[in-house]
Amino acid sequence: PVLHVLDAKPAIARAQATRDLVLEVSVPRAAPGFDTAALLYVQKPYVLDAFATHRWADAPARMIGPPLTRALEQTGYFRAVVPAPAGVPADLRLDTELVQLQQNFTSRPSRVELSLRFRLLDLRGRRVVASRVVDVDVAAPSDDPDGGVLAANAALADALAQAAAFA
Fold it and tell me: Is the whole-model pTM more than 0.90?
C-alpha cells in the first residue's frame, strides 16, 4: 500500500499576552467508521468506501494530535501546552473528536470534508468552558487519492487555525 501522512502546518496568529495556564491536549478520538487508517471516500450518501492501495500511515485521529499541539503552542497564549498524559497538573484540557474525514466524489472536482469537534474543559472547576464544531470543505486538486491527501492536509491546516483561535 501507499502510505500517506496527515501533518498540516497552519499559519497561527500570535496572542497579545501569555496566560499563566497549562493546556493539556488529549489524544483525539474518532467517530464510528472513522477510527481507521483506511483512506475513505464516498460516492453515494451514507456509504463509506476505502481506496484499495492507499492508506494513512496511522488513523487520522491519532495523526491530528501532534500538529494540534504545535498549533496551540504557536499561539503563545499558554504558559505550556502538553500532550496527554502529561504527568503534570494542567489547568485546561482540550478534547478533540474527528467527526468526519472523507473524500466526496458526488460532485466534480471531488472535495475533502473534515469535521472536528473541540471541547475545552476547566480541570480545576470540573466544567466545560466551551465547545465548537469546525467543518472544513476543500476541493481536491485531482480526483484521486493523492489529490484527496493534499486537500485533507489543507483542510486540517484551516481547522487547526480555527482550533487555535478557539482555544
Answer: yes
Inter-CA distances, 134 with 95, 113, 139, Å: 13, 11, 17
108 touches 92 (CB < 8 A): no
| Phi, then psi, of 160 in degrees rounded to 5 | -70, -35
Contact 93, 84 (CB under 8 A): yes
Contact 21, 92 (CB under 8 A): yes
pLDDT tens per residue across span 57-107? 999 999 999 999 999 999 999 999 999 987 889 999 999 999 999 999 999
Backbone angles phi, psi at 83, to 5 degrees: -75, 145
What does the alpha-carbon distance between residue 123 and residue 121 come to, in Å, rounded to a whole number?
6
